[in-house]
Amino acid sequence: MGVEIERKFLLASDGWRSGADGGVRMVQGYFERTPNGPTVRVRIAGSRAFLTVKGAAKNFSRSEFEYEIPVADAEAMLREFCADRLVEKIRYHVSFSGAVWEVDEYFGGNEGLFTAELELESEDAALVFPPWLGREVTGDRRYTNGSLSINPYRNWADSVK
After folding, report:
1. Which of 48-78 are b and which e, b meaning 16 or more Cβ less than 10 Å from the residue's Cβ?
2. Pairwise CA distance, residues 142 & 26, whole Å
C-alpha cells in the first residue's frame, strides 16, 4: 500500500523564487466524494496524466495510490466526471538544506494562494524550515486541493485566510 507523509505551509515571502525550477503547469479535477470516502483525483501535469486515490488523513499520513494514465483519458475524465471541481496551479521544486520542497502557485478560483509541501520518509522526520515558509496548514482541511476545488480561496473572507 502506498502512503503519503507530507506537511503543508503557507508562504511568508517570495524568497523561494530564486531557487525554483521552471515549474510545471497542472490542472486537476476531483470526483464527487461521499462522506468518509476516499478522494479521487485526475491530474494533468505537463505532458503526463495521473489518476490518484487518497484515503483519510491521520496526522501527517494517508494512503495514496497513483497510476499514470493517457492524457486523452485524463482530459475526458476532467470533462465528464469533475465538472467545476478543478484546481489549476504551477508546481515548482525548490531545494533547501537537502530537501526538495514543492511550491504551488494557484490560479483561477484560487489565485493569490501559494503553498509549500514537503514529503517525508516518516512523521517524525527532522525538518529545516526555509525562511520563506509561513504558517503550517497541514491539519487545516480548507487548504487541501480537494477542498479548494469545492470552496476556492477567492471565496474566503480575508479574516479566515
Report:
1. ebbbbbbbebeebebebeeeebeeeebeebb
2. 19
Residues in the chain: 161
Instruction: Report the alpha-carbon angle 74-48-80, nearest 5.
Output: 10
CA nearest to 82, candidates 44, 111, 42: 42
Contact predicate 104/91, CB 8 Å: yes
Active site residues: 30
Q: Tens of pLDDT along 68-110?
A: 999 999 999 999 999 889 999 999 999 999 999 999 999 999 9
Give the residue from 97, 84, 66, 72 showing the smallest Cα distance to 29: 84
Residue 124 is predicted with a pLDDT of: 86
Give pTM, 2 decimals.
Answer: 0.92
Residue whose C-alpha is closest to residue 117's, from 2, 30, 3, 4: 4
Domains of the chain (ranges; CATH) run: 3-151 (2.40.320.10)
